[in-house]
Amino acid sequence: MAVHFKHVAIIGVGLIGGSLGMVLRRKALADQVVGVGRRVENLRTAVDLGAIDRYVGDPKDGVRGADLVVLATPVDTYLDHLKDWAHCLAPGAIVTDVGSVKGVLVEQSEAAMPPGVHFIGAHPIAGNEKTGVAAGSDQLFRGARCILTPTRHTNLGALERVKQLWEETGSILLTMDPHLHDQILGAVSHLPHVVAFALMIALADLRDHEIPSLDLAGHSGGGLRDTTRIAASSSEMWRDIFLWNRDNLVSFIDRFERALEELKHLIKAGDAAGIEKAIERAKAEREKLNARTPMST
Q: Given 19, 67, 154, 263, which is the most exposed site by the fewest CB atoms within 10 A?
């Protein structure tokens, strides 16, 4: 029997929250899905697209009576949200999230739960550079990985219900320690975003200060577009991810800088054999990715 909820509140009805709402409603996994957000226009679109049944402006009104609350806002807002409305939840309610950072954030969210209310960290790796509920789909999570991050405090019954929910979306479930999550995702997701953002900034600086005739759109081919696609991602979301995973990320940026410096040295020295060896190593690692189901951004 599929998991079922009476009242689901989705805080932040964007691409991920809206897509989850579409699954909940299409598969009748909830009696009602209530959206909470700041922009009425977006919430009306969410109703029109079938992502939510109705919406409210005050989160306390949205979560009151809910047996599942999904935090789908930027991760830096979590604790303010929980301080605002967690006390409205009844024992047995579950709060989960869809954020790209776990670690300390999971520990703090667990500590903010009232007695009998359970927090389950979740990270569906299914987004893209687009934002907003209009870009959502009830197929967004199918075949994508979703990482659950239980701790020693996690209620196993609540964990099982959240696991069943994500299985209903078509996700491939993984379980991971929240701090290990931040190390791994810091390397394979957060660092690539840093690189993409920095590359676009460097190219813009070249255009603005050294090559005025450089037309980034007109002169570039698929290589630049492929390499920097994720640079079009939400600045608000990635600002918070970078800050909440800063220790891991700064360490990984240091390692990337060393790799870049090594390649720079080979190029500067005219070391053809060294350059070829470095490229072949990179190529071999990249080809390994083609054999695995990729994570989305």
A: 263
How far apart, in whole angstroms, are the C-alpha atoms of residue 254 and residue 258? 6
Max CA distance (Å), the chain: 68
What stretches of the chain show up as alpha helix (H) in DSSP? 15-26, 40-48, 59-63, 78-85, 104-111, 156-168, 178-185, 191-209, 216-219, 222-228, 235-244, 246-268, 272-290
- Domain residue limits, the chain: 5-176, 180-290
The CA distance from 48 to 51, in Å, is: 8
Pairwise CA distance, residues 167 & 215, whole Å: 46
**Helix or strand or coil: residue 150?**
coil
CATH entry, 180-290, from 3.40.190.10, 1.10.3660.10, 2.60.40.10, 3.30.70.1060:
1.10.3660.10
Model pTM? 0.91
The structure tokens 């389950």 sit at 120
Residues of the chain with pLDDT under 70: 1, 128-129, 292-297
> What is residue 149's predicted lDDT score, i.e. its pLDDT?
98
Please tell me the predicted confidence (pLDDT) of residue 38: 87
Angle at 185 between CA 182 and CA 186, to 5 degrees: 75
Question: What was the pLDDT predicted at 109?
Answer: 97
Say what the pLDDT of residue 292 is.
65
Q: What is the pLDDT of residue 131?
A: 77
Encoded tokens for 232? 């079009």
Is the Cα torsion angle 196, 200, 205, 207 positive or negative in sign? Answer: positive
Answer yes or no: are the C-beta atoms of 228 and 199 closer than 8 Å: yes
Digit-coded pLDDT (tens) for 52-103: 999 998 999 999 999 999 999 999 999 999 999 999 999 999 999 999 999 9
Q: What token pair was written down for 83?
A: 């301080």
- The fold of 5-176 is Rossmann fold (3.40.50)
